[in-house]
Amino acid sequence: MENEAMGGHVMVPVERLSLELPNGEIVVGYDKDVSALQEEISALRSRQRHLDRRRREALDKLIDLKGSIRVFCRVRPLVQTNNLKTKSPVTVEQEKIAVKSVGIKKEFSVDRVFDQESTQEDVFQEVKPILRSALDGHNVCILAYGQTGTGKTYTMEGTDGKLGIVPRAIQELFSLASEDSSSPYSFSISMLEVYLGSLRDLLAQRQPLFRPMECSTSCNLSILATKSGAVEVEGLTDVSIPDLKKANQWYCRGRRARSTSWTNVNDASSRSHCLTRITIRRHGATEEVSKLWLIDLGGSERLLKTGASGLTMDEGKAINLSLSALGDVIAALRRKRSHVPYRNSKLTQILSDSLGKEHPLYQFGSFSFPETL
Ligand SMILES: Nc1ncnc2c1ncn2[C@@H]1O[C@H](COP(=O)(O)OP(=O)(O)O)[C@@H](O)[C@H]1O
Ligand SMILES: [Mg+2]
């Protein structure tokens, strides 16, 4: 092969590059006719496809080696309080976190710990490679879990000056797609909230108020499995996002819909799950579709500890039910069980075509003290 490939780039001999000069100058000594040039272009295209395939295979192998399910722990910086202890009860290593409470030390091993000093950029660097994987056709999930107030929303959404994973991931997808000349991509976005076992479309034209009593009529989207095995939420708004600006506008709209529609805000939204789905279409000889799920899970506080009753108790039970169903699914996948119990909650049903051996899943457990102890 006379064209050498280095680092994914096709190296073209200099005298041929001159053909691409925009001023149309005729290159002296160039004696090829048009058909020879066309052949050359098609050979280069095929070489590019070959390199693209190899890049995908290498990334798949890397994900395989690292494990498609990865668990991270992020420690929220301590909020200043009067009874601030001078010594932190948490010790953090690269892959281990130890918590000391009433004299008992508990240790957890994870793929990586992000300590109090970690920035949104540090966290994003870790998830960047699987965004490439999503563009390559894999369904991918990134989720944040932990108790209320520990930093799940901060990690996923971020704040104005400190963008979280979701806005950064959207930006990265557009940037990767614009660099990839081998195939055109198009993206669309959907956002939904799962509350007390009901699904609510956050990008619907008319936003129903999310009063629990009205849920059965206004938030009853159902989940369908298509013939190809893909899972779809029936009637869920899926808006095309041609550019980053439009994507951010829709994302902000979904976030607003989540926070303003609660009749009793009082942190009720922390007892729902918020799911953002980016659908990626790769247009080529055949169209490939993949999904990137970005999920801010409901707070995982224990009912006993919160002393909940009435509706709060029901909300807590619903959250606990879906979180434990999700935990069961992930445990079954980790143990490579033949049966994976996707059907036990709405949350796991929606994600059933995106949680599996070949689908990368990154979990960010958020953690703060003394609240979590
Ligand atoms: N890593 C962090 N750095 C700075 N502030 C944080 C961090 N994590 C959380 N916070 C702040 O702590 C508060 C609670 O975080 P939040 O993300 O709303 O928790 P959750 O979604 O788990 O209930 C927010 O004011 C948030 O901005
Ligand atoms: Mg939150």
Would you give an account of this structure?
The protein has helices at residues 14-17, 34-66, 120-135, 152-156, 165-179, 215-218, 244-260, 303-306, 310-334, 346-350; strands spanning 5-6, 9-10, 69-75, 90-92, 96-101, 104-109, 112-114, 140-145, 185-195, 198-201, 223-225, 231-233, 239-240, 273-282, 288-296, 361-367. The protein is built from ten helices and 16 strands. Helix content is 34%, strand content 23%. Strands 3, 7, 8, 9, 10, 13, 14, 15 and 16 form a nine-stranded mixed sheet that branches. A three-stranded antiparallel sheet has the order 4-5-6, with no helix packed on it. A two-stranded antiparallel ribbon has the order 1-2. The chain is globular. It has 373 residues and is an alpha/beta fold. A hairpin with a 3-residue loop joins strand 4 and strand 5. Adenosine-5'-diphosphate is lined by residues 76-77, 146, 148-154, 159, 270, 299, 366.
